[in-house]
Amino acid sequence: MATSAEARRRGRERAVDALLRADFGAAVDVEAVVLGYRARLTQGPAVRRRVLTVPRRTVGSRLQAPRRQTPLFGARWVAAVAALLLTAVGLRLYRRPVPPTPGPQVGHVLEAGGDVGLERQGGRVDLRRGMPLRAGDQLVTGADGHARVRYFEATDVQLSPGSELSFLPAPEPGRHVETGLQLRLSTGSLLAAVQRERARSPVVFCTPHAEAIVVGTRLALSVQGAQTILDVAAGAVRFRRLGGEEGLLVRAGKRGIAGERLEVVDPPSAVEQVRVPGAPYPVSPVIEAVAWDAASLRSAASGSDNWPVTWARDGHLYAAWGNGGGFGGTDRDGRTPCGVARVEGGPDDWRGFNIVGGKAPESSFVPFPGKPTGILCVDGVLYMGVLDDESRKRVAIFRSADHGRTWQGVGGGWGRHWHFDRADGAFIRPSFLQFGPGYRGARDDYVYMYGPLTHDPACPEASTQIALLRVHRTRVLDEAAYEYFVRLDTYGAPAWSKRISQRGPVLTDPKGVGDRIRIVYNPGIRRYLLTAWHGSRTGWGLFDAPEPWGPWTTAAYLEDWLSADEKYGFALPQKWMSADGTEMVMLFSGRGRYDAFNTIRATVKLRSIGHASTARSLSSRRM
Prior knowledge:
Layout: H1 2-24, H2 31-40, H3 45-52, H4 56-59, H5 72-95, E1 105-113, E2 116-120, E3 123-126, E4 132-134, E5 138-141, E6 146-151, E7 155-159, E8 164-167, E9 182-194, E10 203-206, E11 210-214, E12 217-224, E13 227-234, E14 236-241, E15 248-251, E16 255-258, E17 262-265, E18 287-300, E19 305-311, E20 317-324, E21 336-344, E22 351-356, E23 370-378, E24 381-388, E25 395-400, E26 408-409, E27 431-434, E28 446-452, E29 465-472, E30 483-488, E31 494-497, E32 505-508, E33 518-522, E34 527-534, E35 539-545, E36 553-558, E37 567-571, E38 583-590, E39 597-606, H6 609-615
Parallel strand pairs: 9-10, 27-33
Antiparallel strand pairs: 1-4, 1-6, 2-3, 2-5, 5-8, 6-7, 7-9, 8-9, 9-12, 10-11, 11-14, 12-13, 13-16, 14-15, 16-17, 18-39, 19-20, 20-21, 21-22, 23-24, 24-25, 25-26, 27-28, 28-29, 29-30, 29-32, 30-31, 33-34, 34-35, 35-36, 37-38, 38-39
Helix pairs in contact: 1-2, 3-5
């Protein structure tokens, strides 16, 4: 009998365990309850009966209970315990925090690049083109980050590196204008273009010191220490300092300062109106002068010219040459129409190695039947433009996924008419905009290419305008994906077209722009640097801009630089730039003694802080 009672007790214990875990295990931790039941087994028979007696109808066939009447009190006790457990589960669910509801959409992202992110509801969201922006979002850019957004449908805002911009869900307490169109710049600076359709509902830019009430204008806003600086390029802006005063009207060409007091002043001297003799654009508001160290000139690969160069993800530079033997070769020894080389080391100890073509190359790949025009590395893949040597008006893009050892072309190379096969010579020598290693630090997901707007191979000096195109970085070999720069619109934003016939000039020099254009982004000074020779190839110009499409200013405009010998292809590899952007190394080639891989050191002298701030205003910079 004792044995039978013990077996019944153990069976009921297992049944209770199974019941609790089956019914509540998915929602609550029942271990403590199970242990409590087991502890009650050590108490008297009456208590034990109440604990272990479970109604058959509660567990069904899972509980093989004895066929006897279950005391009513035991059933009520089990039901009470179940009710308590369910109540506890309900309390836990009730106390669980409910995620906040996202705010309404107030705009979307037009472009983003570098170190940039979006703070939303306490978390960080990766920023991407086309992403909707919501009230309450905060846009944050790092030291090399930038973003351009459209706020509602009538305001474009470009955020500079090191800035924080919030999209306010409602007017902040103490603000003067009761409107939902509010943005708060906490740190850094921005450029904005507000269309006049906002006349009945102005956009308010808030900062820690002031607010700018905008109806329709272009402006630059900057938070600098204990003050806010407003530069107005067009229209007028109502500028108010926090504290309840009436405010002042800042008109085009004027600067508003909100700090200890509110004032409207003239901006720093308009240095952009000064021109270098013969130069097509005003002098740079950022670069005062460039000095060249002639003693640092170093040459190699005699007889090989052109040398477009790119910085790859493996840390090396990759360059291409034409009509020579490359490194270790001469004009005759190892001569090839087009070769590719790898350049290792720093600006003072670089070494070159032939990969394709030239003397003793690393690869047996047959050299290209043409001349290199530009080269670019994107995420470990090399792209190179090659000019057909026979037609002199047909350019193809080739691709290499193994650091230049083998190359694949579109449609089998020259077997298909490339979309740069134009009767007017457009983009006859396309060059790529260069960023960091493997295209790191690019302003967005586009690849930018520059080339002559029109070109006559028999008279390259006749080319006076440069055209610009772009394509998504994943579709470089897709002809249908290309977009061509047309013009800057009323608010300084670039307009693009899918039709090459609608292309317009992005830079013009009446003295000529040549056909070996080079352009690179200098992150230290946050400027794009473009070089092009002019005249009879004995002089060249260095132009700078805040964006790939301008507006351009002149950093240097030289005649008979170093000597009267012909020179071209002035490249400034970002790899050999100092962190602050003031020390650079130029790679160039030419004719005669400069028909080689030549490098020379350069030092950049920056203008004063006042002039540098002018560069960030819309008087010399557009969106």
